Amino acid sequence: MVSHPTKPLATTRLDLLPLRAEHAEEMAAVLADPALHAFIGGTPDTPQALRVRYERLVAGSPDPDVLWCNWVLRERALGCLVGTVQATVSKETAEVAWVVGTPWQGRGYAVEAARSLVRHAVRAFPVRTVVAHVHPAHHASAAVAAAAGLTATAELQDGEVRWELTVRR
Q1: Could you tell me the pTM of the whole model?
Q2: 66: closest CA among 135, 110, 125?
Q3: Bridging pattern class, strands 151-157 and 80-90
Q4: Domain count, the chain
Q5: Which of 14, 32, 152, 156 is the most buried (most CB within 10 A)?
Q6: Over the chain (169 residues), what is each successive 10-residue block's mean pLDDT?
């Protein structure tokens, strides 16, 4: 796959900024609530561990056929980071994910960012399918997936429901 730089995106209230290692300290605070891991497991990363992870993500996938696109969400009016979105693009599929920090949940930021992410994936890459994996009990994330245009399938992968959008070209 040809490398495609992650470019800034914008929504009504959010700037989706390409991920940088320098975002780690602020994002560690955004992602510090252990409740964010209720459905995905693990624990919040320290700023140092998150920096190492972000450096890996920014360096890109070691597989030339896979592209990692990662953004942090900056709430324009507040001037602070509130979450992240990502797309892993391979062949004709974009796998998308989102997370918004607990203090900023319930304000529609995840829907706004996920819609922008899906639109971007469909326009920027020759994908035929956009996929998200959502824990069956994570109703808020399922609502985000539906609002972004994806539909739940009967398929479970690692205990999560596969949500899909088939792209018509």
Answers
A1: 0.95
A2: 125
A3: unpaired
A4: 1
A5: 14
A6: 73 98 98 95 96 96 95 98 97 97 98 98 96 97 98 97 95
